[in-house]
Amino acid sequence: MLKHWDLFLAPYKQAVEELKVKLKGMRSQYELKSTHSPIEFVTGRVKPIPSVLDKAARKGIPLDRLEEEMQDIAGLRMMCQFVDDIPSVVEILKERNDFEVVEERNYITEKKESGYRSYHVVLRYPVQTIEGEKKILVEIQIRTLAMNFWATIEHSLNYKYSGNFPREIKERLQRASEAAFQLDEEMSKIREEIQEAQVMFSRKKEK
Ligand code: 0O2
């Protein structure tokens, strides 16, 4: 049984490893050019089997339809400093020819009821296997550092309360989401100042 799941997850693991290298490479290219990088850092993970099974049960996805219907078995996150960096990253992803963007979900303009904000892009990514090419779905979540902070905290609390937050916690999370939004707005307003300081700082490090 374990072997079956290991085999199932293998192309997803390979895709996450390959895409981590590729997306981190984008950041290195900006660094080499000493220009502002819209990408702060990149993480990736393969959904653990118990979470795959939970989600399939919750969303009524038959196990023989996982490849077609569960889009985030392979997942990556790209963190940006500023909200305005997010459309630039999405454009760069769409221009690449090593995968195809098949779906986009904008939870920044359409914030989720929980307070969650992020931009989701679903890719069809070709993995080379010993049996030939296999195209799999991969979800990339693109968000600011503030959105990521909120989502990480909310995700841990969600785990603790299994989604049934006490009212006080729910309200605090809503307020925290609003505060994260304000933080993004304020940082955007002094974006140029921040970027000038960062260029000065990186030049000083190079000396
Ligand atoms: P994990 O543990 O992050 O891997 P659904 O899961 O029904 O909301 P769907 O259609 O699968 O939605 O895809 P969607 O909406 O693009 O996003 C699913 C993923 O987005 C979630 O994965 C989370 O990573 C993130 N996400 C969506 N809504 C929230 C939220 O309210 N709070 C937080 N913290 N993250 C959210 P999973 O499956 O939860 O798993």
Automatic annotation (TrEMBL):
Q: In which pathway does it act?
A: Purine metabolism; ppGpp biosynthesis; ppGpp from GTP: step 1/2
| GO terms assigned for molecular function | ATP binding; GTP binding; GTP diphosphokinase activity; kinase activity
Q: What is its EC number?
A: 2.7.6.5
Return the broad EC class.
Answer: transferase
Q: What GO biological process, any one, is recorded here? A: guanosine tetraphosphate biosynthetic process
UniProt cross-references to InterPro entries, sorted A to Z: GTP_Pyrophosphokinase (IPR052366), NT_sf (IPR043519), RelA_SpoT (IPR007685)
Report if keyword Ribonucleoprotein is assigned.
Answer: no
Kinase recorded as keyword: yes
Residue ranges constituting the RelA/SpoT domain according to the UniProt record: 44-165
Superkingdom, taxonomy of origin: Bacteria
Ordered alphabetically, the record's keywords are:
ATP-binding, GTP-binding, Kinase, Nucleotide-binding, Transferase
Q: Which family does it belong to?
A: Belongs to the RelA/SpoT family.
User: Known PANTHER family for this protein?
Assistant: GTP PYROPHOSPHOKINASE YJBM
Cite the record's note on assembly.
Answer: Homotetramer.
What is this protein called in UniProt?
Answer: GTP diphosphokinase
Task: Give the species this sequence originates from.
Answer: Priestia filamentosa
